[in-house]
Amino acid sequence: MHRPARSVAAFRRLAPSLAAAAAAAVTLGLLPAIASRGAAAAEPSSAPGTTPAPTVLITGANRGIGLELARQYAAKGWTVIASARDPAGAAELRSLAAERRNVSVETLDVADSAQIAALAAKYAGRPIDVLLHNAGWLGEREKQSLDHLDYATFEQVLRVNTFAPLEISQAFMANVLASGQKKIVVITSGLSSQANTRRGGGLYFYRISKAGVNMAMRTLAAETRDRGIKVGILAPGMVETRLLRASGYPAKGISAQQSVEGVIRNIEALKQDAEIILWDGSRVPW
Ligand SMILES: NC(=O)c1ccc[n+]([C@@H]2O[C@H](COP(=O)([O-])OP(=O)(O)OC[C@H]3O[C@@H](n4cnc5c(N)ncnc54)[C@H](OP(=O)(O)O)[C@@H]3O)[C@@H](O)[C@H]2O)c1
Predict the structure, then answer these.
(1) Of 96, 141, 174, 247, which sits with the fewest C-beta atoms within 10 Å of its C-beta?
(2) What range does the domain containing 140 cover?
């Protein structure tokens, strides 16, 4: 059962302009930190005289593509802030963190503004090279067909897939600006493409939410380009995860490992044009 989202109106009240992000971070510093490990954010480790490893913050890192992103960035030696809404139930992520000192697990329900604020306060002053919005929710298929459009579900899908990446980008803007790589990446979907609707309908809320986050990220790219931020809108392909099975996709997808290898290559090669790029490097039409 998916947890209820906050209302659209509540989100609007909580979303000041990007220009206010620095001031907001100070305010948020008064909020209590939520951590699964210790009270303060662990500092990245690096030998004296060496450049610190870059840092990635991943949402929804407990399973599927997010867990694989955490694994592959950890194997590359990055400092990985792997967030999940229920770390206690995230056995695979916790065992990754137990094996690798460069992985910290944090609590973050992306639909919860207070948790976003608390995590941003905890990491205030820490550069984040890649802010990776991976958490996503399909919504139940039967609640988003023309026979039955459940608008409470629509709001929850929007909260997770569309509002959260913008709100989290806003909350962590100062961290990204302070980093060497300055990248903000959202995992979108090929289903966000208007050109792809020729293949069939259904999944109204998921498609709209992903098209919406694409526009949020395009707008963010336009507003932050001159400060050196690169925004990525990356589609992972059809990947064997719980989400793909829930979508009713009839064929077998590619592995999370294969998809994520491609996604990370695309993040490394990211330009400032904020186009939709598929895991294999090809362009997805708008
Ligand atoms: N698999 C595909 O073929 C495919 C294709 C296109 C795009 N995508 C996108 O890829 C991303 C990852 O999906 P996946 O395929 O790996 O699916 P998945 O296995 O279902 O994983 C979804 C992840 O999102 C997390 N999540 C959902 N709601 C959340 C919330 N409110 N707060 C924090 N985390 C939340 C889930 O955490 P819980 O375990 O707590 O629910 C889980 O970690 C999504 O954005 C999805 O839209 C996937």
Answers:
(1) 141
(2) 54-278
